[in-house]
Design a protein that fits this description.
single chain; Immunoglobulin-like; 2 domains; 3-stranded antiparallel beta sheet; 1 helix
Length: about 100
């Protein structure tokens, strides 16, 4: 009798712990979509087929990466405030915008 009660308590505790851990893990996953888009003060202009210019009007240094459809994004890069920098896109990959990092 005591064994069944203890087993029942242990099972409920295990479910509670598992649920709590799952919720904590899910809450730490960064959201994709609107939150990863750059602010409007970080402007992009396409100057050639494989070249873009990124203009930082944010008033502070900004970190971003170039996003490609169906391909790995670039490494995280930083552009200083009030600067415009040219970047060359990967050959044969579809440019999909900038993402903050």
């Amino acid at each position: 009798m005591y064994a069944k009660e203890n087993l029942s308590k242990i099972s409920r505790m295990a479910v509670t712990v598992t649920t709590t851990i799952s919720l904590l893990l899910i809450s730490t996953i960064p959201s994709l979509g609107a939150d990863s888009r750059p602010p409007q003060c970080l402007e992009v202009e396409r100057i050639e087929k494989r070249k873009i210019e990124v203009r930082n009007k944010c008033g502070r240094d900004m970190s971003f990466k170039i996003s490609y459809a169906f391909w790995a994004d670039s490494a995280c890069m930083t552009i200083r405030k009030a600067r415009t920098e040219p970047y060359t896109l990967k050959k044969g990959k579809r440019y999909d915008g900038l993402r903050v990092c």
